Amino acid sequence: MKRPEPQHMAYAAQFGVTDIVLNRSGLPVVDGVWPLHEIVKYRLAVEQYGLKLSAFENPSVTMMPDVILGGPKRDQQIENMMATVRNIARAGIPIFGYGWNPSQVWRTTPQAIRGGAVAIAYDHSKVADYPPVHGREYGEDEMWANLEYWIKAITPIVEEEGIRLGIHPPDPPTDSHGGLFPVLNSYDGYRRLLDIVDSPANSIEFCQGTISEMWDSANDNIYGFIDEMVRRDRILYVHFRNVSEPNPERFNEEFINTGHVDMYRAMKTYHDGGYKSFFVDDHVPHTHGDTAWGHRGRAFAMGYMQAMIEAIAKA
User: Fold this and answer.
1) pTM higher than the cut 0.90
2) Which domain holds residue 116?
């Protein structure tokens, strides 16, 4: 969710939620930084409902575009992000998630799924001929160099402050995302990321749906990758969602129990590997009579996750 709105906090508490992630939180940006007192206000608002504000994710794209693209303001924006990280830590928030794609999530025409519910979808053929959205092409070597520069600069600050930083995969993980090479569009891309600075402070905001889109069943599988990342203790939390097929160029979101991933097997893999963090509902389909926020779709996803966690834990 974006802000700790009273209706959303009460709803989350009533449905058994324990941890809150604020996505594109709406926090004011003052001189390129999230102010400490504003972060504390959000934490206190969440705690009034017996919930824990465990993470912020996806800061405003205005905060670090030159960091991602290697622009002239890169070093100043990194300094600002260092200050934001310090404020997040001092406000008592243990996780900060971010993305590496200023183009954000891409989707095309929504699609009807089970019972006429509506899910967001992606068809790369409909956008493949778009001109670069950031003025020019940004290739693989350049994007990796920019990411390495950032990771080496920010990780010592994150370690010093005692919190953890996690990166979200590009969604969708195609070979080109609006003219940018998406550095984390494969399992090996993640392994390369973690090897830049091998530290718990350099970890993953594990969007299972996106990661399952890049599944190459001939060479690897998502269950093995989940196990590998859990045992390395590099998964900060999981967007536990499902998609129609392991194809980054054509897929649609699904109900949690109707996509191509065996969600029981995935959940058991987290459990057996010793995963200790939390799961988040994400991109839920729009069902009959639902709200724009997706109250009904979220209730289904949250109930499904809680029942599965309990069943596996007690097996």
Assistant:
1) yes
2) 6-314
